Each structure stands twice: as C-alpha cells, then as structure tokens.
C-alpha cells in the first residue's frame, strides 16, 4: 500500500517535471538553438538586457557580460575603491552612501547608454 | 530568501571556484546551504563564459564528495559516542535500531544514491551511514555515483538555461522532488526485498 502511494507520488512529480520541461522548451528558456555540447561550449549566452543587472552582481561580471571596457563603469559611477572590479554593486552603493536601488538604476542606465551608443560586435 | 541567495551568488562571483568548493563542501557536510541553486547558477555563469563548465562540474563534485566523506567518517568515528552522551543511548541498544543497522549495512544503495539529490537530507544520511557502519567502499562508490548524477543534473540545467535559470527555480525544485520520490520508491522496494530475504 505504502509502495503504491510512493509510486503514485513519484509518477505525479515526474509528470509535473516533464510538463514544465516541455513548457520551458517551447518558450525558449533552454538554449534550443544549440544542438550539441560542443556548440554550447563555443556559443556564449551572454545577458543582453541591462535590466537583468542585479545588485548582487560584481562589476567584473557586468563588464564581461556587456563587453564593457574595464574603466567604463569606474569612471561613470565615480568608483574610487581599489577593489574594483572585484566589488559587488550593493557594496559600492553602501560605500557611496547611495540607496541600493538608485545606484542599481544608475548602473543600468549607464550600461544601456553604452550599449546604444557603441556598435556591438 | 532572495537576499540570502544573492549573498551566495556575490560570494560565488567574487571567489569563483573556491567559493563553489566551500559552499558544496559545507552543504554536503552539515550546513543547510543553497548548494543546488549555487550549482545551477555556476552552470549559468559557465554558459555566459564567466566560468569553465568542466571546472565547475569537477569542483562541485569534489566539494560534495569530500563533504559527504567528512560527515560519514566523523559519524563513524565519534557518532555513536556523541549521540549516546546526548541521550540516545537507549536507541542504540533497541531491537529497532538493530534492524535499521542490518538494513543499512545490507542494502543502503538507493538511500545513499537518491539522498545526494537533496542537500537537506544528504548530511543526515551520511551521519546515519557512518553511525550504522555502512562499509566504507560501499558508501564511497554509491556516493560518488550519486554525486556525479546530481552535479550533472543541476550544473547542466543551469548551463542550458543560461541567464534564465533564476526565474525557473521551480523547475529545479521539481527535478529534486522527482529524485526524492524515486528514492523513496527504490528504498521501499529494497526494504521489501531485504525483508523477504
């Protein structure tokens, strides 16, 4: 009896998992254009939307994701910390005594401005 | 919860593979850390070119296995003595405990394997395996196999989801629930077979 219930529950979760997987595949959540592991390794999947930037990210990571020159955000945001770029956005907001959300918006706007004014490779 | 995960992600971005090893180790050893989310995030960061996928999978595997073994060996060496001192002495001399020991030393495979997919349960199983005297070789082999599958599941899902991994956490949770429920089924089957034997 217990085994039958356990099998039923396992089947239920497998159904949910398969259903969610199909949904994600259909909406393009997976990198569905990638057909092989080798292709996946060679094809980077960077973030392209500056609104995806979050305060837990580091400047190093943001620079890499948006192909920014290393000194760009340092100049734009007036960062003086010697830890840059290995520094999180929320930490820098704290150092500059600016509200975290405001600082984050400023970073997003700076990245957006750079992206629209610079031809992307 | 978001802030806690954010702190772990910052730690991961700042200290990369070292952070991944530390989180994997302590999650496998004893602490309730979000190691599955961290592993999926590392896979996503690898898809973005920030990490190497192969190194992520290797470091996560190493951290998990070393953490499991640390918990297992400490429990094996000191577990029973410590548990007896804090009031579990009667449990160890009970007939029920003896049958648990017989089952675990005879057929622990599915319990150990499937508990690798649930970092919340894994450390408890490691301690139980150590205290009940599951053979070292059996534990090591099943643990490594289980951790390989676990690391591949969460690491590759994060890799193929890319930057969308965070908004699809429910998918990862469902994967974990599938493994948990399959683990319960397998453990029950194994227990019934063990009893029949």
From TrEMBL, chain B:
It holds the Pfam family VTT_dom. Keywords: Cell membrane, Membrane, Transmembrane, Transmembrane helix. It is found in: Cell membrane. GO terms for cellular component: plasma membrane. InterPro entries: DedA_domain (IPR051311), VTT_dom (IPR032816). Residues 33-158 form the VTT domain. The chain crosses the membrane at residues 12-31, 51-75, 148-165, 171-194. Its main location: membrane. This is VTT domain-containing protein. It comes from Candidatus Nomurabacteria bacterium CG1_02_43_90. The lineage of its organism: Bacteria, Candidatus Nomuraibacteriota.
């Amino acid at each position: 009896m217990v085994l039958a219930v356990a099998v039923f529950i396992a089947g239920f979760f497998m159904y949910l998992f398969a259903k969610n997987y199909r949904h994600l595949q259909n909406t393009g959540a997976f990198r569905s254009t990638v057909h092989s592991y080798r292709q996946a390794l060679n094809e980077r999947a960077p973030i392209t939307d500056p609104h995806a930037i979050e305060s837990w990210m580091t400047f190093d990571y943001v620079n890499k994701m948006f192909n920014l020159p290393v000194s760009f955000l340092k100049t734009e945001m007036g960062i003086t910390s010697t830890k840059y770029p290995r520094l999180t956005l929320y930490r820098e907001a704290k150092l500059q005594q600016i509200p975290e959300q405001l600082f984050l918006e400023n970073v997003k706007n700076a990245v957006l401005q750079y992206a629209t004014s610079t031809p992307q490779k | 919860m978001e802030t806690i995960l954010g702190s772990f992600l910052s730690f991961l971005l700042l200290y990369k593979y070292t952070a991944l090893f530390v989180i994997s180790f302590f999650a496998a050893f004893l602490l309730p850390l979000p190691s599955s989310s961290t592993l999926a995030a590392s896979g996503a960061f690898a898809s973005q070119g920030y990490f190497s996928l192969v190194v992520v999978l290797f470091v996560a595997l190493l951290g998990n296995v070393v953490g499991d073994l640390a918990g297992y060996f400490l429990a094996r060496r000191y577990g029973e003595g410590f548990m007896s001192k804090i009031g579990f002495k009667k449990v160890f001399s009970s007939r029920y405990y003896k049958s648990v020991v017989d089952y675990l030393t005879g057929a622990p495979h599915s319990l150990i394997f499937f508990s690798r997919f649930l970092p919340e349960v894994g450390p408890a199983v490691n301690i139980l395996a150590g205290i009940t005297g599951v053979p070292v070789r059996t534990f090591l082999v099943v643990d490594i196999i289980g951790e390989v599958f676990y690391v591949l599941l969460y690491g590759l899902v994060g890799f193929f989801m890319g930057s969308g991994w965070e908004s699809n956490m429910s998918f990862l949770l469902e994967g974990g629930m599938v493994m948990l429920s399959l683990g319960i089924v397998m453990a029950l089957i194994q227990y019934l077979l063990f009893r029949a034997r």
